[in-house]
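Lab notebook: predicted structure, single chain.

Context: the supervisor wants predicted structures on file for every construct in the current expression panel, including those that have not yet been purified. This is the next one on the list. No modifications to the sequence; it matches the entry in the shared construct table.
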Amino acid sequence: MTLLYLFFGRMRESSFMTAMWGYQINTGLVLLLFFWSLAEAGKLLVVPQDGSHWLSTRVVVDKLWERGHNIVAVIPEASLLMKSSENFIIKTYTVPYTQESLDRYYHSIGKDCFFSPPLLEKITITLKNVSEMTTMFSSTCRHLLYDEELMKYLQDSNFDAIMMDAVWPCGPIIAEFLSFPSVYFMRGLPCGLNYRAAQCPNPFSYGSRLFTSSSDYMTFTECVKNLLVGFSEHLLCYLYSKV
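Prediction complete. Output recorded below exactly as produced.
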């Protein structure tokens, strides 16, 4: 009798647990469907950065569009790679340079990439190019901020968030001015700021530094050079911030 009682008692307990488990699953599905029905596509403002940074940002923007989000990208009239798209709305603003002058400028920078000057000369050339680019992008940002019609459109559009490339401060300035929640796209930030922001390890032993042209597989001599350049990054970043 005791064995029968234990057997049928275990069966009743098992049936009860199965019923409770099924009830929890059904409840979870109901809640999932309920919140799924509340989820809606958002309105996203994108303030991208031209050049190779846009190639990476564009992939993310296209994926967001595929998921049903409404996207508006703000770009200058003259740009290197940022062109019209069927996936999102493009809003342009005037800039103090033409497409032809911009193309000539990037072409001159591109030619420098095929030369291998000594390290100090390479640093000097890079700082000169950064100074010129900073002047150009600062002027571009001012023209965007002073475009009253476009800024009013952005303010009245009630975007849910603004996604920007953090390599230049124009995006954060626009986000602060419009009081929009910010989403930062961090790639290739100067002075290793993208590693610090994400708290990722970036040791000298395998993370090649700027100006070294080394890969992640370095010889002993390249490792020593990488170490010396890494120790001088604070000075280089100070010079970078002053240009």
